[in-house]
Amino acid sequence: MTENAVDHDVVIVGAGVCGLYALHLMLKQGLRVAVLERADGLGGTWYANRYPGCRFDSESYTYGYSFSEELLREWSWSELFAARPETLDYLNHVADRFELTKHIQFGSTVVAAAYDESRSAWTVRLDDGRSLSTRFLMTAIGHLSAPVMPRIPGLDSFQGRSFHTYHWPSEGVELTGQRVAVVGTGSTGVQIIAEIADKVDQLVVFQRNPNWCAPLHNRPIGSEEMERIKASYDEIFERCAQTPGGFLHGPDRRKVFELSEEERLAFWEELYAAPGFGIWLGNFRDTFMDEAANAELSAFIAGKIRQRVSDPAVADKLIPRDHGFGAKRVPLETRYYEAYNRPNVRLVDIKQTPIERVTPAGIRTGEAEYAFDLIVYATGFDGVTGPFDRIDITGVGGVKLADKWADGPRTLLGTQINGFPNLFTLVGPQSGSVATNFPRGIEEACEWVSGLVAFVRERGYQRVEATASAEQQWVDHVKEMAAKVLLSRTRSWFTGYNPNLDRSTENRYVMYTGGAVRYRQRLQEQAANGYPGFTMA
Ligand code: NA7
């Protein structure tokens, strides 16, 4: 068959951080590319999340793309951890600079994709009835783009305003003088609570399990400092490339119990006072793996919470009991704990006093009824696999991806799936980008997939597919790595858990915990050896 038998060489779903870079790389190869984006603007997660307080907790200058020296030279970040509007400006700047926008079809929601064996091509269907055919299909649909509402009786009866954080309206949300509820205390809830506590009249936080939070220590970046950063981008990205999470912060190989108490406390004080994820990702390596080492660190952080929260009973509620520090995603905050010292802020522990129902006026627990003007559901996402479940994806022999992944995702390197030729899951489960400094992970994945596409095309092949055995080996490796870390033993979106979905998390391995360095080695081994994990025809 001829190349022209399909509308496109590549269709990319999603115009966020990943989709934009994939688009750039495909255009560089001279391919016919279309990007389908359900939103009306580009930026993915940075377009959607409009809630107050939304910002990075990656250092801004490690979050930008690294592929273009000109781009690095011309863009200046204003803060160590930039807020959402600045990031969105940055992504629009990138799209303008590399002339990407004209290839993006906005308001285009993909509902189905089916592999056509006779044509070695995918047919992609949109919710408006349109369909496109493409040789290669690439998903850049995000890890956290499928928001989940809680299952609380009476949810729709509320007479005030209410929404999930992912659907925070672009304008018209009044906070001043309002009585506000926030349900959920993950990274999103923590950012919102800290930001709005001094703006609203009353704030009631409904908490299931608390998280271990640590200070962000944000500050402006001056022009001289930004020049110094620009001059050292090579070293900055090299440093990120050597850490398991693609951040500036990598683990310290000393062991907790090999040091004196004085030494380790001094180190923890230093990390707690420093900006960013150092207190988590720059900590002693055994705090990620060894319960006793982790318990020491958790006790240190619990002490900080007690110091920062005036009422000991409230502090006690804010200290996690279900997991140790860093065994779930650590929200970084600015005066989050101090918010609970304010007279207008109240914490309701819903494990002690469960929510009975949402009423027309507000929220009723077993103990009290609270009246609100606004209820914000910061209840998280159907993480990583959720965005895939929302598209009806059919592979070889009519097999549905949802069925193949019913008991947990199975992939090769998180980027390809046996039975689904020519489909590249750029931001897939078990890939290097789950829970890493996202742009660092996706740049690598996109470049690697781009290399594989070039390899396939240069040899005149039309079909590339992960072998069943290579996929099995990767799944086994993902499980083996997961067994080593405390993170895999907790229930959060990192482990495929969502309290509002009826789904077992047993055997769900959505995240690769072997680290970015090991992941990169695996990618490079495939490329250097002619992609032995794949068949091509
Ligand atoms: P998360 O981290 O999944 O947090 C969701 C929060 O919502 C968490 O505190 C949950 O408590 C809580 N939750 C979920 N369902 C309910 C119900 N039914 N009632 C009360 N509370 C509930 O999502 P985020 O949006 O905060 O953060 C997602 C990621 O975005 C984050 O990791 C960053 O990478 C960016 P639980 O812990 O399950 O007890």
Tell me what you see in this structure.
The protein is α/β, with parallel strands linked by helices and 537 residues long. Among the domains are: 3-42 and 100-146 and 383-536, FAD/NAD(P)-binding domain (3-Layer(bba) Sandwich); 149-212 and 326-380, FAD/NAD(P)-binding domain, CATH 3.50.50. It has helices at 17-28, 45-48, 60-63, 69-74, 84-97, 187-196, 223-231, 233-241, 261-273, 278-281, 291-308, 312-318, 336-339, 386-389, 401-404, 438-458, 468-482, 516-528; strands spanning 8-13, 33-36, 104-105, 110-116, 121-126, 131-139, 161-164, 179-183, 202-207, 214-215, 332-333, 345-349, 355-358, 362-365, 369-371, 374-377, 392-394, 423-425, 464-466, 534-536. Strands 1, 2, 3, 4, 5, 6, 17 and 18 form an eight-stranded mixed β-sheet that branches. A five-stranded parallel β-sheet has the order 7-16-8-9-12, with helices on one face. A three-stranded antiparallel β-sheet has the order 13-14-15, with no helix packed on it. Helix 1 runs parallel beside helix 16 and helix 16 runs parallel beside helix 18 (516-528). The radius of gyration is 23 Å and the shape is globular. Residues 144, 150, 183-189, 206, 208-209, 329, 350, 378-381, 493, 499-500 line the site of ligand NA7.
